[in-house]
Amino acid sequence: MKILLVRPRLIGDVLLTTPVIRALRRRYPHADLVYLVEDLAAPVVTSNPHVTETIIIRHRKGWRRLLADLSLARRLRARRFDVAIDMHGGPRSAWLTFASRAPVRVGYDVSGRTWMYTRVVPRPRGYAPRHSVRNQWDLLRAVDPSCGEAPDPDRDRIEMPVPAAARQNVAERLTAAGLTSADQIVVIHPGAGNEFRRWPESSFAEVARVLASEHTHRVAVVVGSAGEGSAVARVAGAARATAADRPVRIIEAVGWPLPELAALLERAVLFVGGDSGPMHVAATTAVPIVTVFGPTLPVHWSPWRPAHLPFVAVEPEALSCRPCDQRVCAPGDFRCLRRTAAAQVIDAARRLLETR
């Protein structure tokens, strides 16, 4: 059997599909599991032991995307997949699933796209209190109803294997930065995919400064993608500038490959960030996690991993506009984030560090 999984982007969303990959491999041990993904999120699945092959496409726009997708459609059709699963539900992923011409094509009940599938999965309207992984499981059941066992974070956790080379590279980076095995690394990610989930940089700087100054061997490593370099520099710079006469160690880590970020998180004692890709990368490890939630809810997007691994969700007070679709801030002031004080996150971080 040949099964195509279509989930072009983003990093966190691709990570949240890995429990389904594991379940498919468990159900079909000899199947070819082919994953279609864009290059940015490709490292999530290229090293996954349950994936037979990864088809990597570039994130393009306009006519370049159209030409690339037409060429890709021909390639997919030639592969003669038995099953194609659209794990996204967007226009592009729906069309690529349809273009595969697989006899069984599974996707969500999204207006205007259901005709592209042979099996349509109902999707809750609005904000049902249900985790994203459980929603993905509905697609799995549509492929094979015998896969009826509910997803279990202990058995079916999200995963991204870390190559030995990545661990070695991180060890060399940390040594070059003057760190030793005695140092406690607190990883802080101030970025987010959009402004609706971006906690103020000044708040992240305060968290970095306080946590790094409370222990002689503690180091705050502020991380970000290549496109987040300026934000990382501002947060790290503000943390250093407000440290007064007490020295703090703040390190900037920008543009590290995803496997190296995961290797760094394996070594860390704490992760602090928003609801974004690096938070889900942290969830593949055992590192304690503090997540600042704004327009999104933990019931949908909390780290999918065993309950014994420490996690604290820091949320705003009840707001009538929360959760939202992250297109327009109704009050106009992003209060779901800006009303969350740095002290709340610092208190949560201290609790996890003290119980470590």
Note the main attributes of this structure.
alpha/beta; Rossmann fold; 6-stranded parallel sheet; 12 strands; 356 residues
Outline of the structure:
This protein is an alpha/beta fold and 356 residues long.
Please state the oligomeric state of the protein chains shown.
Answer: single chain
Question: In CATH terms, what is the architecture of the largest domain?
Answer: 3-Layer(aba) Sandwich
Instruction: Outline the biggest β-sheet.
Output: 6 strands, parallel
What do we call the CATH homologous superfamily of the largest domain? Glycogen Phosphorylase B
The unreliable regions are none
**CATH class of the largest domain, please?**
Alpha Beta
Give the SSE order as H and E letters. Answer: EHHEHEHEHEEHHEHEHEHEHEHEHH
Question: So how many helices?
Answer: 14
Determine the CATH topology of the largest domain: Rossmann fold
Number of strands: 12
Strand residue percentage? 15-25%
Q: Can you list the strand order of the major beta sheet?
A: 3-2-1-4-5-6
Descriptive overview:
With 356 residues, this protein is an alpha/beta fold. It has 2 domains: 2-143, Glycogen Phosphorylase B (Rossmann fold), CATH 3.40.50.2000; 165-355, Glycogen Phosphorylase B (Rossmann fold), CATH 3.40.50.2000. The chain is built from 14 helices and 12 strands. The strands form 2 sheets. It has a 6-stranded parallel β-sheet with strand order 3-2-1-4-5-6, sandwiched between helices. Strand 10 (270-274), helix 11 and strand 11 (289-292) form a beta-alpha-beta unit.
